[in-house]
Amino acid sequence: MGIMRIATLTSGGDCPGLNAVIRAIVRTSSSEYGSTVVGFEDGWIGLMEDRRVQLYDDESIDRMLLRGGTMLGTGRVHPDILMSNLDRIKENLDDAGIDALIPIGGEGTLKAGKWLSDNGIPVVGVPKTIDNDVNGTDYTFGFDTAVAVATDAVDRLHTTAESHQRVMIVEVMGRHVGWIALHAGMAGGAHYIVIPEKPFDINEIVKSMERRFQMGEKYGIIVVAEGAAPKPGTMEYEEGGVDQFGHQTFNGIGQVIGQEIKSRTGYDVRTTVLGHIQRGGTPTAYDRVLATRYGIHAARAVHEGDYGKIVALNGENIDRIDIDDAVAELKVVPEGRYRAAAALFG
Amino acid sequence: MGIMRIATLTSGGDCPGLNAVIRAIVRTSSSEYGSTVVGFEDGWIGLMEDRRVQLYDDESIDRMLLRGGTMLGTGRVHPDILMSNLDRIKENLDDAGIDALIPIGGEGTLKAGKWLSDNGIPVVGVPKTIDNDVNGTDYTFGFDTAVAVATDAVDRLHTTAESHQRVMIVEVMGRHVGWIALHAGMAGGAHYIVIPEKPFDINEIVKSMERRFQMGEKYGIIVVAEGAAPKPGTMEYEEGGVDQFGHQTFNGIGQVIGQEIKSRTGYDVRTTVLGHIQRGGTPTAYDRVLATRYGIHAARAVHEGDYGKIVALNGENIDRIDIDDAVAELKVVPEGRYRAAAALFG
Amino acid sequence: MGIMRIATLTSGGDCPGLNAVIRAIVRTSSSEYGSTVVGFEDGWIGLMEDRRVQLYDDESIDRMLLRGGTMLGTGRVHPDILMSNLDRIKENLDDAGIDALIPIGGEGTLKAGKWLSDNGIPVVGVPKTIDNDVNGTDYTFGFDTAVAVATDAVDRLHTTAESHQRVMIVEVMGRHVGWIALHAGMAGGAHYIVIPEKPFDINEIVKSMERRFQMGEKYGIIVVAEGAAPKPGTMEYEEGGVDQFGHQTFNGIGQVIGQEIKSRTGYDVRTTVLGHIQRGGTPTAYDRVLATRYGIHAARAVHEGDYGKIVALNGENIDRIDIDDAVAELKVVPEGRYRAAAALFG
Amino acid sequence: MGIMRIATLTSGGDCPGLNAVIRAIVRTSSSEYGSTVVGFEDGWIGLMEDRRVQLYDDESIDRMLLRGGTMLGTGRVHPDILMSNLDRIKENLDDAGIDALIPIGGEGTLKAGKWLSDNGIPVVGVPKTIDNDVNGTDYTFGFDTAVAVATDAVDRLHTTAESHQRVMIVEVMGRHVGWIALHAGMAGGAHYIVIPEKPFDINEIVKSMERRFQMGEKYGIIVVAEGAAPKPGTMEYEEGGVDQFGHQTFNGIGQVIGQEIKSRTGYDVRTTVLGHIQRGGTPTAYDRVLATRYGIHAARAVHEGDYGKIVALNGENIDRIDIDDAVAELKVVPEGRYRAAAALFG
Fold first, then answer.
1. Which residue of the set B14, B42, B99, B131 is catalytic?
2. Sheet harboring B268-273: ordered strands across?
3. Domain at C247, CATH number
């Protein structure tokens, strides 16, 4: 293709590296093809409502490389709303003279991109998930930063746990998959890791802690993914309570496991819920490189007219795969990976 | 004094820098005076039960400089128990040939040290409080590390808050004083800081957020000390609930403030409770230097027979002050310090 | 004073925290007094050449809190040039309607500020020195960040030195004073620290390393301030060479000491010169708080008409001291501080 | 295989993650197979001289996960010496009852391992190179940590360069390949990257800096791999000088490039040589996970009798490949990877 006018937007939860992707799209489009890039703010809603901003290939965009979050803002929108606005979207893209769209987002965003692609809009997607659950790509940017933040927390809790002879539980992100828990747990030397893919048996967790205390190593670190759940029938547990004052309560699975261990063993048990600090802030060098490479290759795919694809990390290379292949199912932690990690729980 | 045999112990909550203090006591005692040091494990209880370990002036103790927690373990004991065990304590110290004791701990530990000192045991105390609430000393080790961890969290939440147009609340440590909240809030550019010393008016907090959103800066960061409380009569609030399943709930003041802002404004509000990651892990360089200086000077005070004192940072110097002066009252955030910070809330 | 129009500028080497000072001046002036602030770019030269920029009390200035360097740029100018431009400076300040000037800089800048103050320009100075060598203030911002960076380097070199049985030398900043070397060396557990205040005896350094190797601790870490020098008559050494190709060479004192140890002992010795990474990048939380407090108090001093002063940290308080007192002489590492640190060299 | 007795050793330069590999070998061997592990100290020399230490599957080995360097020490030995000691090596392994050997090291170590394997010693190798130059594996542990340290330095230099309108050059590791320079340069937003694989044209580098200054972006960051070299005939340059005092000089290629830019443009140019801080210290979470996985899979390969192989990262999996394939040639930065990065130099 010749010189193009490209649009990009970020959708769904924020993720360290989004700005690095945008920067790489802008700079590659400019320096390799002489093309220009506009952004739509606040995700799909900004595309529907034409919240357009010009993105310039200058010093200011370079500065964004280090910044977490997204300079374009983000948002969520129901697919039905998007679909019912196809005409408006096409109109806005036409008005702005856009030749192709690069949406950056998770499963929902990529599916929407696919649907737009099927409906005549040239689309190349960039996968974004801090949870690392997109099929067809080895890693997604943001994941390494989340693991680094979670691992730093585990490192810090080790010494406290040991000094106070405590069991410390760290609840990390991961509603449907346990990649962050698995990696942060391995990196941090956790004594147990609980992931959604493998319903837990509270008896086994309790036993593993008791074994440590009996061996004289009187503390334990347990990393729990927020989406973990007990084996059916092994433990009473309901999410989302209301206290006697009528306020919503925030007991997550980490706290539930903690209470259970405490009541069964009498150990001093504490739970820390890491929450949003895992997804904000300056990306790690790894994530900046990966996000930059995604941006470079998305810009190239667009200029080569290779639509309906997403860019994906495959070993050392960035490949292009069909969006359908990427969103067909979640990438879960394989049984073997968990078992290998479990051999180190000790 | 000539060559001595010194004992040390750590008591109360753990704190980054405890090991640096112990190392400095051991090395200074050895290299400046030819003295030896033993540690009692698990705080006062270890002194009562004679859980004694020899501390060697070698490579292994140097390695502890970087480690959070305490190599001696820690514990809590009721003053009455301590007092009723005076004879046993004296016996244990005699048996071990101990000439002087250096307890490292917070208000309770220092008071106990004073009481032992009044009862004939040569004691020099080292103040330890992550909350920075000990009178008579500019700063205590561990505080800088806690502020650094909390500030890193605030930095990370900024970009998420901005990308999602959210109010993000960070609950930090500080049951009785707001030093960590004040410093992390100032360092992180928080838009509101809530501290125990100044009961908050929820209306004012809500208004400050509304002002930001009206000005187009559609996000906000609020740092809340865990011990913050509303002005009497301004807001219903009770701690420590139980949900409909009979489980203990964990709604802290940060979550209460968050719910209130959300229900009054409709903004997307999220709360992160930092918890234990603030008190563990490798101390900052600042805390390692301060802790090391405390240890050096405690060893010297002991060898100079200057008992009944604690070491304290006074500007650039480490002074010795009477334990009584240190524990008479908590060091709170002065009104003027808070007002100066508040001018930057914007 | 009522509403004012204030000017600020940054001069000399850059330093983490400069932007935090500027931000605090702008926000405090605006929110407490309704005043406005302009900046002159590139230090004194910008004042002479009227490179004026308006600084706004908005979101963008908040973002600068985390950024190293200075948003106003910096420069150096000879005092004679400044003095010969007094009329032009006054004219520029008059034209811009400036009521008072807040120069942020080191010894030279503060002296220049004093001279301007004596010549009728209302000036309040903010001391800036990464070396921590300004008299009358406990600490200056930037110093903590430099120590943190240097300490991180020392931490990293420890494991390499140990694995390879090497002597590792780290040359840190400090042309005239050894504060950074002293603190980074103490925090990092260095086995020897060499500072400008105490001319070194190479024999003593060599002996201390030999002692370690004989004791079986076959590695050593030495922290050297760039301005360190041998005791007169103890070692041949000249700075600033030229090699056989006519190129300038960069052998610093760290490398000289390294070569000497190597040739005398045969140990594997390596030198790392940290250089500029010590003075750039995001300030530590400590430096952000200190810089912010300096900015707040400089703005207040100006509004209270308290000219000819600098702001200075005194224990927990920010005081105002006469510029003359601050620049009379350098703040050096006292003999006692060095001796206390030396007791830990081991 | 049944229960085994395994030996391991680390050879060549140290690398963050070595201890994590050793820990994973010990724990996996113990918990999955009931096997025990011994280490030989100081690399191959320790194997020849039987410097054997038992490695226990306990708390103490878990602590090593975070530590840089190698708990076994390391060393270098000429292949001829190794080969002439085959009988002694076999004898030592026999005496210790060793069933298989896991050497952890770079190209030379792996070749030696292959030779031993060909000579009847059961060997599984673990590749170690901070430079990431081993063929057949996507990444090697230590590389991510080196890139993280180098990127942090680049981040810090950005603000200084900008504040002072300077060209800052960062010389990073990489004697034969430019992976660290490429990744740190991309992650840090460098304006030029110089790698060994692509001999540089000093005119082009100078022009790229001049372009920036002309565009008003009056500073530049250049990342240079230590092994970079000019295009033949374009620039006089000789390594390893001696100054007029007869001392060895340390002008690396970074300093040579810096001097050249300075003399041609008159810009303020500074060079920082990162050196050893890139290879020491706590590994990143990424490297801890990768190193742990290498250790797990090396232990499994040994127990499955799959000798003459090394473990290698292939996308998401750890594979086993023939040692010969790994050491046949260096993994260099492909032309396309460099060109993609160069499009962002700007």
1. B131
2. B192-194, B220-225, B166-172, B268-273
3. 3.40.50.460
pLDDT mean over D79-86:
93
Share of chain D above pLDDT 70, in %: 96
In this predicted structure, the answer to whether residue A216 has a pLDDT above a threshold of 80 is yes
Q: Is residue B342 part of a domain?
A: no
Q: Which ipTM value was assigned to this complex?
A: 0.95
Range of the domain at A193: 143-278
Residue B117 touches partner C, C-beta closer than 8 Å: no
Domain-embedded: residue B307: yes
Is residue A34 domain-shared with residue A91, that is, in the same domain? yes
How many structural domains are present in chain A? 2
The A residues from 159 to 188 touching D (CB cutoff 8 Å) are 183-184, 186-188
For C246-315, the DSSP string reads S-B----HHHHHHHHHHHHH--EEEEEE-GGGGT-SSPPHHHHHHHHHHHHHHHHHHHTT--SEEEEEET
Q: Does any CB of chain B come closer than 8 Å to the CB of residue C155?
A: yes
How far is it, in rounded angstroms, from Cα A147 to Cα A159? 19
Among candidates D10, D157, D247 on the partner chain, residue whose Cβ is nearest the Cβ of C241: D247
Report CA-CA distances (Å) from C223 to C153, D203, D323.
10, 38, 42
Q: What is the pLDDT of residue C2?
A: 86
Structural domain includes residue C120: yes
Distance in angstroms (rounded) separating the CA atoms of residues A50 and A9:
11
Mutation target to probe the A interface, by most A beta carbons within 10 A, among B21, B169, B249 is B249
CATH code assigned at A320: 3.40.50.450
Residue D344 lies in a domain: no
Q: Is the pLDDT of residue A211 over 90?
A: yes
Residue C67 with chain D: CB contacts under 8 Å: 159
Q: How far apart are CA B301 and CA B306, in angstroms?
A: 5
pLDDT grade for D328, boundaries at 50, 70 and 90: confident
What's the pLDDT tens digit per position in D245-279?
A: 666 666 789 999 999 999 999 999 999 999 999 99
Do residues A64 and A147 both lie within one domain?
no
pTM of the complete model beyond 0.90: yes
Which of B147, B285, B289 shows the shortest C-beta gap to C285? B147
Number of H helices, E strands in chain A: 13, 11
CB pairs under 8 A between A and B: 155
pLDDT tens track for A89-132: 999 999 999 999 999 999 999 999 999 999 999 999 999 999 99
Active site residue D99: no
* pLDDT tens-place string over residues A266-314: 999 999 999 999 999 999 999 999 999 999 999 999 999 999 999 999 9
Pair B194, B260 in one domain: yes
* C135, C286, C318, best to mutate vs chain B, most B CBs in 10 Å: C286
Residues A264 and A304 in one domain: no
Are D185 and D91 part of one and the same domain? Answer: no
Q: How far apart are CA A206 and CA A192, in angstroms?
A: 10
Give the three-state DSSP class for D270: strand
* Stronger pLDDT, A241 or D277, i.e. the higher one: D277
CB contact under 8 A, B344 and C138: no
Q: Which residues contact A277 (CB under 8 A, 6 or more apart)?
A: A149, B152, B153, B156, B157, B272, B274
- Chain A: residue whose CA lies nearest to B14: A160
Residue D175 marked as a ligand binder: yes
How far apart are the two ends of chain A, measured CA to CA in Å?
57
Chain B residues whose beta carbon lies within 8 Å of the beta carbon of residue A259? 247-248
C270: which chain D residues are within 8 Å (Cβ-Cβ)? Answer: 275-276
Query: Among C238, C243, C279, whose Cβ lies nearest the Cβ of D251?
Result: C243
B121 and B234 together in one domain: no
Low-confidence ranges of chain C (pLDDT < 50): none
Judging contacts by C-beta atoms under 8 Å, the chain B residues touching residue A256 are: 247
- Is A91 in the same domain as A148? no
Note whether B292 and B319 are same-domain residues. Answer: yes
